[in-house]
Structures
1.
Amino acid sequence: MGSTADESGHKPTEEPEHKVTIAKPFAVSKFAVTFAEWDACAAHSDCSQVDDHGWGHNRQPAINVSWDDAKRYVAWLSKITGKTHRLLTEAEYEYATRAGTKTAYPWGDAIGGNNANCAGCGSRWDVAQTAPVGSFAPNKFGLYDMVGNVWEWVEDAYTRTTVRHRRWTDRHG
């Protein structure tokens, strides 16, 4: 978990690289939570309405959501499905994103072109707005858009080796 100083896109908060054991299997949604899903929670009065910056709802990823909002969403999802849902831990998120690779990105060590929505990533949405979920190829675990596009909240609180919110690449640079 984490990265070395010479890894592409490295941030000092990702140090030191270290081994982590994930004790139990876990499941992950193949897409980020969409505005359509968020709006269903809001319609039940369990989630607040959030601003979409005029980029639309439906398949757009939900944005402007606080960590507390994300916790309310998973509590609502648990209630309506009858199954326990929670935010991933930082370690689970990184494991799911890397999808068994040891490279800086799930597709290799270079950001490349049109692999994600971030500054200089070569997508039509770069720095302009969020991309609809599923706009880029999935990683080897079948998970979409795990790099760039939007912030992903995780369960852990910030410490020297874990951060509550992490994005592998920032769509604003």
2.
Amino acid sequence: MKKAVVLLSGGLDSATCLGLAKAQGFELVCLTVVYGQRHAVEVEQAKVVARAAGVKDHRVVTMDLRAIGGSALTADVEVPKHDDVSHVGGGIPVTYVPARNTIFLGLALGLAEAVGARDIFIGVNAVDYSGYPDCRPEFIHAFESLATLATKAGVEGGRFTIHAPLSGLTKADIIRAGVKVGVDYAVTHSCYDPSPDGRACGRCDSCLLRRRGFEEAGVPDPTRYAR
């Protein structure tokens, strides 16, 4: 079996990505990054998601992006809230974490080279998302080229493939795809600003997009919302 490194946040998208990689027959190595995010509950959910998928090798890397800041997820900046999903969009929101996916993919690339994997899965989405520049297909393609240039494996003739299977899908399509491969969305977490008991706020961009996705997919939403 070929190995694949899957970036796993514990959210809906990355859990679906994991399910799709598993369905393709890869031996799974998961990587979760604790980066000082205010929604750290997602890290515990990532562990649950990995166990549910039967992952035997799950690495958790800790780094402090709060030392850099620049985002509502890593600094004392209020997370935007809306009453309706139609208010989401327009520009890059303050929940964008500077260079986060570049950093995450760099870590995943290092892990892939270390364990002999040449495939990396990331759950970025360029349709139902909040406008982050590091979720676009152009970024994924550019990083794939960098991976060949920047590694011993690449210099010696190996080639890395960055899989972003959710890139062109709506949130509803993502949920339908996950249901087909047996993803249990009840154990995932997407909220940027959860309550102390871990319930989703229901009003941040991520919650609103998630809720609409379940509605449009015709799948019951198992999320515990504070409102």
